[in-house]
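Re: the 246-residue chain
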Amino acid sequence: EYALSDELDRQILPDGGHLSRNPRILIELLLDLLPLRETFLARGIEPPRGVLMAIERMMPHLRLFRHGDGALALFNGMGTTPPDVMATLAAYDDARARPIEQATYSGYSRLTGERGIVVIDAGAPPRGAHSVEAHAGCLSFEFSSGAQRLVVNCGTSRFGSDALRLAARSTAAHSTLTLDDRSSATFGRVLGEMRVVAGPSDVRVARQEREEGQEWVGSHDGYSRALGAVHTRRLLLARDGATLTG
């Protein structure tokens, strides 16, 4: 019990994200932890506090990525969202928690305006063993209106060829700026795995409510060492969600 709680406390960040920044990992964990919680309760046993706290943090974080069609945004290893999986998680979600809008520890932002939803990668890629599925997509975003996705990332599949998966992790496969045909992060083979070995380390984010809508500004230094450039992006989602300017 204590080993599981300690490990969850280590891997799940205070805002509910995983150390890998991969939304798919949250789905996999919740599909294990939610039935485990129900098993304890069915036997009249109090579930481990670490399990309850992890679930409580992860559910609203997962909602941060959810578009109007119910599927999740494609960042850092996330691929197609199986509809039955999201239906299963929704059935367990007794809190119906509102999605968080700024995941500071995990590095994600969400803007909303009526039917419009914008999800932004606003963090540096993880390093080490947790970066084996991380992408070079810093400051990329997805934009949807109702059930229609208008701007998306490519996403990735765990079952494609190595070359295809690496291409899907490149900056060019994301809705963000690519400079000099380079990715903002560098991948290298470490212990047989393609990990992030260099990339943005200084990512800054600011947001404010304006009369016109929600404004978001972010920057990263992924190109500063090689090209002497800092990428800054500004997005403004109108209150009615019908206009995104940047």
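The helical segments are 2-11, 23-42, 49-64, 83-92, 162-169, 224-227.
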